[in-house]
Design brief:
The protein is an alpha/beta fold and 597 residues long. It has 3 domains: 300 residues, TIM Barrel (Alpha-Beta Barrel), CATH 3.20.20.70; 32 residues, no CATH class; 166 residues, 2-Layer Sandwich (Double Stranded RNA Binding Domain). It has 18 helices and 16 strands. It binds 3-methyl-2-oxobutanoic acid and zinc ion. 3-methyl-2-oxobutanoic acid binds next to β6. The site of 3-methyl-2-oxobutanoic acid has 8 residues, from β6.
Amino acid sequence: MATTTDKLIIFDTTLRDGEQSPGVTLNTEEKLEIARQLSRLGVDVLEAGFPVASPGDFNAVQRIAREVGPLMEGRTGAGRVNQEMVICGLARSVKADIQTAFDAVKDAPRHRIHVFLATSDIHLEFKLKISRAQCIERITDTVSFAKSLCKDIEFSPEDAGRSDRAFLCEALAAAINAGATTLNIPDTVGYNTPSEYGDLIKHLKENTPGADGVIFSTHCHNDLGLATANTLAGVSNGARQVEVTINGIGERAGNTSLEEVVMNVHTHPLSYPVHHTINTRLFFSTSRMVEDLSGMAVQANKAIVGRNAFLHESGIHQDGVLKNKQTYEIIRPEDVGVTTGNLALGKHSGRHAFKTKLDDLGYAAPALSDAQFQAAFAKFKDLADSKKAGVTDGDMHALVADVRSSTLAVSGHAVTPPVTSTDPVPEDDNEKAASSSAASESAPRFTLKHLQVFTGLGITPTATVTLFDSVRGTEITDVALAQNGPIEATFSAIQRIIGIEIQLLNFNVAATSEGQDTLGKVAVRIARATEAEEKEGGDGSSSSLAPSGAVAKFSGLATNVDIITASANAYIAAVNRMAGHDESENRASHKSRNVDI
Ligand code: KIV
Ligand code: ZN
């Protein structure tokens, strides 16, 4: 369909700003999984990370550039982007950061370096301790250096929302002169009002020398709940790129939510002078993936992707919707991947019906690998046998999450492809990584073989657990008692078997559908007990952009008709990720960087 409006560039920063959400730590495999989904969704530019932060971050960005950068699945056809996703790496205004960011992204067919430096007086005086003149000098110097490496350069004046406008124009002009092609205007602390932020974009476009030749971009934080409104005000005033995250995850109250901005533009084509090329039907499945892998739950009443977003509870509304959906629905649920018909599959449903249902729910191949599809089908068959009323859409989403969690736990062992000699990870480390990858990809470290729990009123809960340890090649059984219920007993028995003291940071059980035969979906988050204690009440010295000082946390997810079995499997999935992480940390630890911003 020919369109006369400008294209709105969707810049997704779920893996960079989103990953800075408190408590979120994604491993490389999880980042790759999300990056692949964002590519299928049609994201134009993916900020894959902050490569200088640590070797792990570098490795993740480099693998995304190499493995996801060339992908075209889901990106071709009418109304689609029809180009590869641009892979972007963030860098401070420091040459070494910029070189590292370039090294990480350069293998993507389309790549970008994103350089930032604060421009507000409060940041210049107290954080950077430099004058305005020194700030301009640094922008010129570092953006020119970035331009010498890469033609696509984005510059962000951090805390632009609180910067002096005249100085901001000067700083942006310096960035344009040095070669920046996109100017991103962050409301870093979520302080601006919509009219103020819209006016800021307009002012900068009208008063910055050279502004005509560059794209202006929004980057809004949600501290006052205005991120989406501010972003849209920016678009109305001339911004043609928006920086967003799935589910709006990010530092503090989060970033602007991708799905909210896109659906606003989608729903009001006459109000915004732009069009998008996002496959909105993948919103719900993408949201669930990010929720499951990040451990950041989506609030039920969140716009577009919340579980209640399309539920009509009151009788008057239900009656209206039955007569004509448009009485109370402004978005067709299926346009964002929400299925409301909820036709359940049963034990006689075959592979074909199962695959069709997965496609409808937004998991069309290659969203699941062949192995994941087979595992999901096997689980579905078991489930269909035990659930007489049929397997619902909610069960299907949970089943996919479960399979992803257990297979990612396996491949959570870092698999590092060979890199060039200029890369920060030495070649010998990569050889070791490559040679261990075959083994680490083959099986999870621990699998649950047997679980027996005694519990009840007036009984001390006891759990007997047998795990298969694929490294030792043997089954190990242990028993534990607990004062606080059968889940505690089960987790204690697992800890005794693996011989590591673990702190349970988060434990959540949810029903996947209605009715007594619903599945229990359990999500856990764990850390090594000693590490968590050491970091408790931390010294506050770690930078907001440097995750290297944080306690490593691992999440796991599983579903089962029996919530204790689901809990055990979720816990084991998290333990397997911890095992994979420990292995890759050992390889990279002597090269760990400590970035201080
Ligand atoms: O919020 C912010 O200022 C940022 C910059 C690094 C772009 O995330
Ligand atoms: Zn930000």
